Amino acid sequence: MRVARNVYTEFYKLIHSRGWWLILCLVLLIQPVFGLLEVKQLVAIGLDATPQTQPELLEAIPPLDYFGFDATQFGLLPIVIWGGISGAGAYQNHNLRVTLLYSSRRLVLFSAKIITLIASTVVVSFISTFITIIVTHMGMAGLGLNPITLSPIAWMFIGYTVIQWTLLTAIAFAIGLLCRHMIVPLVFLIPQIYNLGNYLAQRWSWGNYLPVAASNMITATPVKTIAHEPLKGAMILILWLSIMLIMAGYTFVRNDVGGNY
Q1: What span, in angstroms and rounded, lies between the C-alpha atoms of 66 and 70?
Q2: How far is CA 168 from CA 11, 210, 218, 238, in A?
Q3: How far, in Å, CA of 71 to CA of 249, rounded?
Q4: Would you call 104 exposed, middle or buried from its count of C-beta atoms within 10 A (0-12, 13-18, 19+)?
Q5: Cβ count within 10 A of residue 231
Q6: Residue 257 near residue 100, CB atoms below 8 Å
Q7: Can you tell me the distance from the alpha carbon of 143 to that of 135, in angstroms, rounded to the nearest whole number?
Q8: Contacts by residues 104-109 (CB-CB < 8 Å, ≥ 24 positions apart)
Q9: For the chain, what is the HEC assignment?
Q10: Is the distance from CB of 83 to CB of 185 less than 8 angstroms?
Q11: Which of 183, 159, 161 is closest to 172 using CA atoms?
Q12: pLDDT tens digits for 46-92?
């Protein structure tokens, strides 16, 4: 009962946060536009085009089932930033001190914060990805999949994208909460999103165990150079998340709330 009450409170604070609505605008409105622009270019080139027939292509055009998923990487950046800011924000402006006046059980409060973050990220990532894929196939003027039923492969990759977004956002949140500063998760994760993770993974075997490189194993398409190993990628991310949550939970329960007075 205490957890449910705290979850309600955390959701209430979430929907009254300006940052949350900014993230929603980016991933629900702007991301589908990227998917539409991308598919318009592919249709103009020709869906049967190859790097041999069209030198501007770096790789073959993927099957219809995979259209639109490149655009979902746009939303990954803001949702991860939001996760890091949310984690560190607990200690900003004495938010945690005020919250503890309402609920003094820190472990319950910590659990409520994690539940709220994961639940909200799952919902937003699913809606954002689904809308992006719908808009992408609607923009193909009858050449794409049915925009509502899609295909089993497309639905599978929607699920993979939700897993990727949720685990990376939760890791960013845990690091922000642990370090009490939003810069740490952003410095750690954002360069990886901008291909640093893939760069390291291609040159050193240990690079595959960085969070973003591992997440790319989940969402990689057949035409990518990254191996598509969703189980391995998910297990690596879960391990990262478990370690970060244990450390963040311990410091959250044991340490002072912080703040300058």
Answers
A1: 8
A2: 20, 11, 12, 9
A3: 34
A4: exposed
A5: 9
A6: yes
A7: 13
A8: 105/2, 106/252, 106/253, 107/249, 107/253, 108/2, 108/3, 108/6, 109/6
A9: CHHHHHHHHHHHHHHCCHHHHHHHHHHHHHHHHHHHHHHHHHHHHCCCCCCCCCCCCCCCCCCHHHCCCCCHHHHHHHHHHHHHHHHHHCCHHHHHHHHHHHCCCHHHHHHHHHHHHHHHHHHHHHHHHHHHHHHHHHCCCCCCCCCCCCCHHHHHHHHHHHHHHHHHHHHHHHHHHHHCCCHHHHHHHHHHHHHHHHHHHHHCHHHHHCHHHHHHHHHCCCCCCCCCCHHHHHHHHHHHHHHHHHHHHHHHHHCCCCCCC
A10: yes
A11: 183
A12: 777 666 777 666 677 788 888 889 888 889 999 999 999 888 877 76
In terms of phi and psi (left: phi > 0; alpha: psi -120 to 50; beta: otherwise), the region of 226 is beta
In this structure, what token pair is assigned to residue 244? 């970060």
CA of residue 4 relative to chain centroid, distance: 25
Structure tokens at 185: 């998760």
Residue with the two structure tokens 């190859």 = 50
Is residue 79 within 8 A of residue 27, CB to CB? The reply is: yes
Q: Evaluate if residue 261 carries a pLDDT over 50.
A: no
Q: Which of 30-39, 129-138, 186-195 has the lowest mean pLDDT?
A: 186-195
Other CB atoms within 10 A of residue 200 CB: 19
Map tokens 């604070």 to a residue.
13
